[in-house]
Please model this.
Amino acid sequence: MANFTKKIMITGGAGFIGSHVVRLFVKKYPGYLIVNLDALTYAGNLANLQDVESLPNYKFEKGDITDEARMKELFDAYTFDAVIHLAAESHVDRSILDPLAFVKTNVLGTANLLNVAYTKWKGALDDKLFYHVSTDEVYGSLGKEGFFTEETPYDPRSPYSASKASSDHFVMAWHHTYGLPVVLSNCSNNYGSHHFPEKLIPLMINNILNSRPLPVYGKGENVRDWLYVEDHARAIDTIFHQGKKGETYNIGGFNEWKNIDIVHLLCGIMDRKLNRPAGESAKLITYVKDRPGHDLRYAIDATKLNKELGWTPSLQFEEGLEKTVDWYLQNQDWVKAVTSGDYQKYYNEQYNKR
Ligand code: NAD
Ligand code: TYD
Model:
């Protein structure tokens, strides 16, 4: 282990975004040891990392971020230089069904990890880094105008966003109170391969393929800013290496879409790829009862990241969606594995009453 120039723990590395971050770091930095710490909840899947699992600078460790003894054991075993923290409960609809699970993992888990990192790094903080990955949802909901900047006051409105906002505050508290070197980023909605099919885009792709109803909440007029997941991973790489300690960076795609327009776009792409008559898949669109407290619009101003660190998104949305649809069509074994058993139970609870 002594030969590695950096030893980094990436939490939540078996999840959607985490697996892309792990892949990027393991491949781009063979001199870094990347330890993927993940509890393997329903959202964690080691199959996401098959292409890197045998590389010498990658290790997997199963563990729960709320488990203090296990976190201490890993810090002792690996003497980490940095943490990139993505492990979280991440789905708004599940946070409405079971809010305390979000408080436990996102708030207590993050505070536990901060505490262990500080305890283990105390006395040698200068060359350490705790990078906390967060969401634009902490800023609340926008009207038709305006953008979230790093100065926008926090105004979370779902149990998910409240738990992420709380975790962000704890990260800053450890920085200001104990001098822990931290950096934080708040990103807009991601899409791409390995996305669990409970979120809008992979759920719609899966339902279109199986000719199931496409459940659009409310009138489908809510707006999200979408970023290709590999662009988010690149932004994390940039901020990890060049970000200023104690600072927050907003990450976004400059790419706002109404939900209903995305669903129509996907229907069109899939009609073409599945050789269906034009308009066939759109017949599956079903308007269902709205999500309680449904945030109307998220839009990120990522100027700071662009101006200060030179990051910019690489893909147009239509191109990214084509690549994403292709990945799902070519990886049906992955989809079938993650939509068995528990997923069906969740799906019925979430959608059958609507
Ligand atoms: P995900 O749900 O796909 O993955 C979460 C991962 O964390 C899973 O592998 C899961 O097993 C693991 N995990 C959950 N609880 C854990 C625990 N107690 N201990 C250890 N591991 C645990 O989530 P994602 O979409 O990849 O999001 C990753 C991070 O990025 C989250 O912090 C999320 O808030 C943030 N984020 C997500 C988006 C998005 O669009 N998905 C946008 C901005 C920020
Ligand atoms: P989601 O992917 O859950 O991300 P978030 O709520 O964190 O932005 O949802 C994206 C948008 O799509 C959101 O406005 C809710 C909407 N939506 C639907 O209309 N139907 C669905 O089945 C899902 C999962 C989401």
Remarks:
- Residues 344 and 350 are 10 Å apart (CA to CA).
